[in-house]
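ok, trying the design again with the full structure, not the truncated one.
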């Protein structure tokens, strides 16, 4: 399933990709709407990159804390 999605997105136009990312991010409705209403694809992708980088850092911090407590390393 993930492979099919990756193949599908590989050929997508940047605008389509930006809208798809905005629609699938786990953010609150007003933030998602703000992303969808940005005027340019570049602005949308930059905002999405900031969100994804922030979420990645939060997950890294969580993983570090879990490892320090001796819990499982997988986050499934």
């Amino acid at each position: 399933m993930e492979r099919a999605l990756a193949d599908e997105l590989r050929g997508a136009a940047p605008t389509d990709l930006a809208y798809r990312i905005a629609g699938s991010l786990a953010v609150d409705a007003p933030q998602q709407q703000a992303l969808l209403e940005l005027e340019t694809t570049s602005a949308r992708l930059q905002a999405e990159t900031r969100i994804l980088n922030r979420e990645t850092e939060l997950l890294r911090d969580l993983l570090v804390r879990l490892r320090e407590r001796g819990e499982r390393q997988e986050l499934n």
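Keeping the full-length input from now on. The longest helix spans residues 41-68.
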